[in-house]
Amino acid sequence: MTRSFVAATLIFLTFFAPASAVAGEQWEWPLDGHEVGREFDLPDDPYGAGNRGVDLRGQVGDPVRSVAAGEVSFVGTIAHVRIVVVNHGRERSTYQPVAATVQVGDAVTAGQQIGSLLGTGSHCVDSPCLHLGRKAGDRYLDPLALMARTRRFQLINPDGPPPPPPIAEGGSFRRPVGGPITSPFGMRVHPITGVRKLHDGTDFGVPCGTPVHAAASGIVITSEFAAAYGNRVILQHEGGLTSSYNHLSVESARVGDRVQVGDIVGNSGTSGLSTGCHLHFMVEKEDKPVNPMNWL
Predict the structure, then answer these.
(1) What is the pLDDT of residues 266-289, one digit of tens each?
(2) CATH assignment of 181-294, among 3.40.50.2000, 3.40.50.10190, 3.40.50.11210, 2.70.70.10
(3) This model's pTM is above 0.85
(4) Residue 266 Rama label (left phi>0; alpha psi -120 to 50; beta)
(5) What does the pLDDT look like over 169-185, one tens digit per residue?
(6) Which fold has domain 3-146?
């Protein structure tokens, strides 16, 4: 049997699973660790290669917890992979490979253990991984979109200047600007070149000229124009991390400057290879791009 068969069977399960409590707007992490091994990458073809969920690195035996309240709708083995499905009403979450500690029909709460992570059947080749899926009907959705750890609302004085974005509740970085996420980290077709490649950061939709704040304290190591990224500022942080702020209209920080979290490093713009006003925010760990939302 193939993974395509597993996916097709899960479609059947999600259509015929009983309804339960409606999922909340935010999911909890199913593992204690938050290390993402592979991002959601929905293929263009229904049977094409890709990743219809997110792979979270862990260790064999790690507790696996329900991301939201719901009802267990499936516990079983498909193509030699042990799977648990929890129905949240409009959406369903799937977990594999998992040794279940729950049964079909069990009501579960957010964060309740539903099993433990297995080593056999992992999507990751170099370590055990939990493959977490999110489905609405027959549509595959990105689980990480519901697992961001930033505050959703902040009261401000309508007559005063906008405050810097708040520090994330569960992360180590501060969100550099407000505004919606217009393009997440992950594989996509580039809107200008038409090439399918990694989108190496998160795009926030904000008007040109919006102040851009340092996501964490650090030292400016780059302040320059780059052909693709336009005007950009790069900060070096502790732990082998860097953050970069791209497509700026103005750079306010210079190489060698020491900046504190929340300091303005520039203003958003549309310089470089850009389709409109926004901030392209990147985080790199040991010179490799990682999903910024894991740090916010």
Answers:
(1) 999 999 999 999 999 999 998 899
(2) 2.70.70.10
(3) no
(4) left
(5) 345 798 999 888 888 88
(6) Glucose Permease (Domain IIA) (2.70.70)
